[in-house]
Specification:
There is one protein chain. This protein is mainly β and about 190 residues long. The chain has one domain (about 5-185). Helix content is about 15%, strand content about 35%. The chain contains 1 helix and 10 strands. The strands form 2 sheets. A 7-stranded mixed β-sheet has the order 1-4-5-6-7-9-8, covered by helices on one side. Strands 2-3-10 form a 3-stranded mixed β-sheet, with no helix packed on it. A hairpin with a 2-residue loop joins strand 5 (about 65-70) and strand 6 (about 75-85). The radius of gyration is 17 Å and the shape is globular.
Length: about 190
């Protein structure tokens, strides 16, 4: 990884070559969540404040954490994290936009840091309350208008193991948080 020294130090956190612990912290005050990431390899987490990404990108949506993990000498993976206190239809749509913005920002960072194409891309949603799953306490989600053909709702992909982002099928994993908004994940 080249050119990391040209980035503001407050913009990223890096492990040693043998790994370590990194943190993804929710950037908006509404949810206040933190995911502790355990990495067995070198990794860097980038935190982009909301509406403060690369100014020349049209999308202003940014995720809570963009993580690059080195697996082999020049083999880097991309992991994008978004934290939500409660996942509802609207917040899930917003999360998918943030994943898209995260991929675009990651591609730009990859170019700056002189890295090869990512060998793997994954996205993660860390959340406290799930109002989208079939066993959700919100029965209104499954109501269908009378006389209209039944179509797949926009949140149906919440239960899918992958999402389509920027034309790529990307694995999606959910990370449940405890009542204080804390969670852990091993990369």
């Amino acid at each position: 990884m080249n050119n990391l020294e040209y980035l503001e130090r407050s913009f990223y956190e890096k492990t040693g070559e043998t790994g370590g612990t990194l943190y993804v912290i929710e950037q908006e005050k509404s949810g206040e969540a933190q995911v502790t990431l355990h990495c067995s390899n070198e990794a860097v987490v980038f935190s982009i404040k909301p509406n403060n990404g690369f100014p020349y990108l049209r999308t202003k949506n940014t995720p809570d954490g963009i993580v690059f993990v080195r697996r082999e000498k020049q083999c880097w993976e991309l992991h994008i994290f978004e934290c939500k206190k409660t996942v509802r239809v609207k917040s899930w749509e917003k999360a998918k936009q943030q994943f898209e913005g995260g991929m675009l920002h990651a591609y730009m960072l990859r170019g700056l840091l002189d890295l090869p194409p990512f060998s793997k891309i994954c996205v993660y949603t860390a959340y406290q309350d799930d109002h989208l799953s079939k066993n959700s306490p919100d029965p209104a989600l499954f109501r269908q208008p009378v006389g209209k053909p039944v179509k797949k709702p926009p949140y149906a992909d919440w239960d899918d193991p992958s999402l389509v982002i920027l034309g790529y099928e990307v694995p999606h994993q959910r990370i449940p948080l405890n009542n204080s908004g804390q969670g852990e994940y091993t990369l």
